[in-house]
TrEMBL record:
This is Putative ABC transporter ATP-binding protein YxlF. CDD domains: ABC_DR_subfamily_A. One of its GO terms (molecular function) is ATP hydrolysis activity. It comes from the Bacteria. It holds the Pfam family ABC_tran. The keyword Magnesium does not apply. Its EC number is 3.6.3.-. The lineage of its organism: Bacteria, Bacillati, Bacillota, Clostridia, Eubacteriales. Gene3D superfamilies: P-loop containing nucleotide triphosphate hydrolases. InterPro entries: AAA+_ATPase (IPR003593), ABC_transporter-like_ATP-bd (IPR003439), ABC_Transporter_VariousFunc (IPR051782), P-loop_NTPase (IPR027417). Residues 5-227 form the ABC transporter domain.
Length: 231
């Protein structure tokens, strides 16, 4: 099994409070993994460490065999849960920006996705609704030929129609040479995408496994399991 991402005894503390507490995970190549937990459980901290934006307090992260750094940033496409484009940009400027910034950016794919998402290249980034902004950010992230995609709340605050578009885009643009980490509160909408799930509470993994096996063993959907674990 080709392990793309692993963490070993990963810990992160802020001002004495543990945001992550001895997290050990192994993610093989070609998997879509749901990282599920309530607000403040440590999901975003974990993603930021993997993306190389935060340093762990202790423990180790390996992506494609390397610790987070210049190389791993070149193979990780990270969709943060906060805006990251400049206010002066139009949608077409953001495409240029990504093309100049990332060697693995596939401009042709980006234009196809914009069309699929019904986004107008001449729209100003500041004029976009939350749903449209989400669709643009996802378009930019998925247009990279990355080995690891990290999507932090890709469905946050978007209407059901937009949600379907976003899910379709994720499904159509996923390939078996890469893996994808997705955090979400909307487990019911997205659980059909997951090969594996990690439930995280208070910075620790409380349950993990193959999504289908968990469904069969517990005789529950992942959403029902989520509600049970975090009630």
């Amino acid at each position: 099994m080709d392990i793309l991402l692993s963490t070993e005894n990963l810990t992160k503390s802020y001002l004495g409070k543990k945001a992550l507490n001895v997290v050990n995970i192994e993610i093989p190549k070609g998997k879509v993994v749901g990282i599920l937990g309530p607000n403040g459980s440590g999901k975003t901290t974990l993603l930021k460490i993997i993306a190389g934006l935060l340093k762990p307090s202790s423990g180790k992260v390996l992506i494609d065999g390397k610790e987070p750094g210049v190389y791993t940033k070149s193979i990780v496409a990270y969709l943060p849960d906060t805006p990251f484009l400049y206010k002066w940009m139009k949608i077409k400027d953001s495409i240029d920006f990504y093309r100049d910034f990332y060697k693995d950016f596939d401009e042709e794919k980006a234009w196809e996705l914009l069309k699929f998402m019904n986004l107008d290249p001449d729209s100003k980034v500041t004029s976009l609704s939350k749903g449209m902004a989400e669709k643009l950010n996802l378009t930019l992230t998925l247009s990279r030929k990355a080995k690891l995609y990290i999507l932090d709340e890709p469905l946050g605050g978007v209407d059901p129609t937009t949600r379907e578009k976003i899910l379709d885009a994720i499904i159509q643009n996923y390939n078996e040479d890469s893996s994808m980490l997705i955090t979400t509160h909307l487990v019911n909408d997205i659980e059909r995408l997951f090969d594996e799930v990690l439930f995280i509470a208070n910075g620790s993994i409380v349950l993990s496994g193959n999504a289908e096996e968990l469904r069969l063993k517990e005789e529950k959907s992942i959403d029902e399991l989520y509600r049970e674990v975090f009630k």
